[in-house]
Specification:
Blueprint: H1 3-6, E1 9-13, E2 20-21, H2 25-38, H3 53-63, H4 70-85, H5 88-94, E3 96-97, H6 101-110, E4 114-118, H7 124-132, H8 156-169, E5 178-182, H9 185-194, E6 197-201, H10 208-214, E7 218-220, H11 226-235
Length: about 240
Amino acid sequence: MSLAAKTRIFVLWDVDGTLIDNGGVSKEAYARGFEILTGAPSTQPVVTDGMTDPAIMRALFERHGLAFSNEPRAALPEVMAAALEALVPRLRERGRAMPGAGQAIAALAAAPGVVQSVLTGNIARNAYTKVAAFGLEAGLDFEVGGYGEDSEVRADLVTAARRKASGKYGTVFSSEDTVLIGDTPRDVEAGRLGGARVVGVCTGRFSEAELRTAGAQTVLRDLRDTAAFIRTVVSS
């Protein structure tokens, strides 16, 4: 039987704070990207706040009194990919994979009928770079993820990812079939608005209460208990 015939669950992982801790390197990459795009160093703080890469850079431009026109918007994917790639050694030094993340991905990859990818405000190349920096890329299909290139609005990324996955695997993924795993209220909101079941994980700075208030149906302390995690994803 083909994978397409067996597929039942589409799992979308948030990257920063859920699969990895980037150690603050992401903000350095945005500052570097800004300097490449404008020719001048940033004098304003980078605010990420769960936004997509285009939205983050647009806000940074605006704080400098600059218009985020079509030219920098079009150049953003290449510029941000180069900016982060130059920081990979620092990412590996200062960042880490979240405890249990590798085991959770591997366990889902071994489960029949599961397709896994990522849903992140990062551009696609940077999502892969971050995950691969810590050896977490195996088991994830990056072709069907939701990324910052797809929309500036994070909730739109669920629909974008589902559309890609349905096209590739020949399976129509419903809201019940789609599970988003994330660590922030923004992740939870994206899942709710995008039409996905949401599993919150307290691997970032938000508590169980905060994630439940945001609308997560299930919240786990972390990813260390692989068996409990699998049960939650399959049955949540």
